[in-house]
Amino acid sequence: MLTLKQITEQTDRVIAGLQKKHFNDAAAVVAKVLDLDKQRKANQQLKDAAQAEMNRLSKQIGQLFQQGKQAEANAAKAQTGELKAQIAQYETAMQGFETEMTNILLTIPNIPYDIVPEGTGADDNLAVKMGNWPNQAVIDSLAAGKPVALKNWPAEADEAIAAERIAQSEKLPHWELAKKYNLIDFDLGVKISGAGFPVYIGKGAQLQRALINFFLAEANKAGYTEIMPPTVVNQASGYGTGQLPDKEGQMYHCEVDDLYLIPTAEVPVTNIYRDVILDEKDLPIKNCAYTECFRREAGSYGKDVRGLNRLHEFSKIEIVRIDKPEHSDESHKEMLAHVEGLLQKLELPYRVLRLSGGDMSFTAALCYDFEVYSEAQHRWLEVSSTSNFDTYQANRLHCRYRDQNKKINLCHTLNGSALALPRIVAALLENNQTERGIHIPAALQPYTGFEWID
User: In whole angstroms, what is the distance from residue 145 CA to residue 139 CA?
Assistant: First the structure.
């Protein structure tokens, strides 16, 4: 959550940032936090004054008794009793203001960096880079620092890839390919669990395992330490990374035990560092984890949820970094380069988006999405979100580091999908289908053990 120091010292910037994220009544909510802090401080001053007076009287009482001034001593004792009761009242009031202030702070999203574009939703996201793309003019334009808002995205850019790679025959969507080659059984998943829980079979299961191993191996090469965390977390972990109280409706809740199925490995991995003080020399910390992820996806419907496009359970490899503030921007760039490298090796056409204020997550200060192009569906599929959370999560987690001067500071936390499997699988199947079958990219073949699905 935002720190009280940020709100008190950078009030105008905080309000402007919240407005960029379209947070309702930003100025009023900030004013309420400042008022609660003012009342808390006022009660603190009253408590301190009462405590000082009580200490002064306590010293006098013994002297008064020694001087035989029993009446005065008893009066002083009675006065200290009254002061003690007042101090208790001030402490109760302070705790009330503190609790109310914290509850409000937990509902306030992170403020975006200045580089985040204005906008109300996905149409205002900026495409800043592309790769594995036949339309060189689009790549050159983005490389020259001319980002394009998605609402102004040239339709001919997508038509160019469709014309080049679907010239010979019409491509089948992945759900039809999965049935044709007996790779994924969606109906069986409905029978066992319900919609959104596919069953992978044969080479479909092997392809999943190959991608998991490929992504983990690449993360290992990049210096990430692999973690195998639990896939259920307690409430404190959900609050620590910001899933609670913002996204409890999207998380599967085990009510008897008050545990939550994780929506991403970000939650358990980042919470490893909850209530921990790290040494500056150990930063940045780089972890990766493969887990199953669970999301209710309440309210999702239509063509965007067909097949693997939107699932309730899916596999994902997550990369997480804990860093010091002055290096977190460099860490973010390294994470983006890592995700991009994976897509390049998989030979998938992709674009990189800088998300607008209206499309960013509750906790992110800066987020880039990676999308791959689905040739059969003629649409872009998000496969990674890579975010810098600044001190927002660290403040909730009490994740800090001790610098060279022995000063304790809040860390920065970052994470990204590297990568989420369902839409990667969809794009691999759709984009690599030929008359013979589906060709496996060269970088993945050592992990699949086969070159073709046919």
Answer: 10
C-alpha 245/C-alpha 239 separation (Å) is 7
Render pLDDT for 298-325 as a digit per residue (tens, 0 to 9).
655 555 678 999 999 999 999 999 999 9
Task: Compute φ and ψ for 249, nearest 5 degrees.
Answer: -70, -20
Distance CA 376, CA 157 (A): 16
DSSP string, 206-239: HHHHHHHHHHHHHHHHTTPEEE---SEEEHHHHH
Structure tokens at 363: 């906790």
Q: What is the mean pLDDT of residues 17-27?
A: 96
* Measured distance CA(297)–CA(261) in Å, rounded: 13
- Can you name the residues that pair with 149 across neighbouring β-strands? 126
76 vs 128: CA distance, rounded Å: 73
- The least confident of 50-59, 114-123, 180-189, 385-394 is 50-59
Element (H, E) at 439: strand 438-439
Instruction: Using DSSP, state whether 197 is helix, strand or coil.
Output: coil
Q: DSSP for 129-174?
A: EEES-S-HHHHHHHHTT--EEGGG--HHHHHHHHHHHSSSSPPPPH
Comparing 9-23, 152-166, 219-233, 413-427, which segment has the lowest mean pLDDT? 152-166
Between 68 and 322, whose confidence is greater? 322
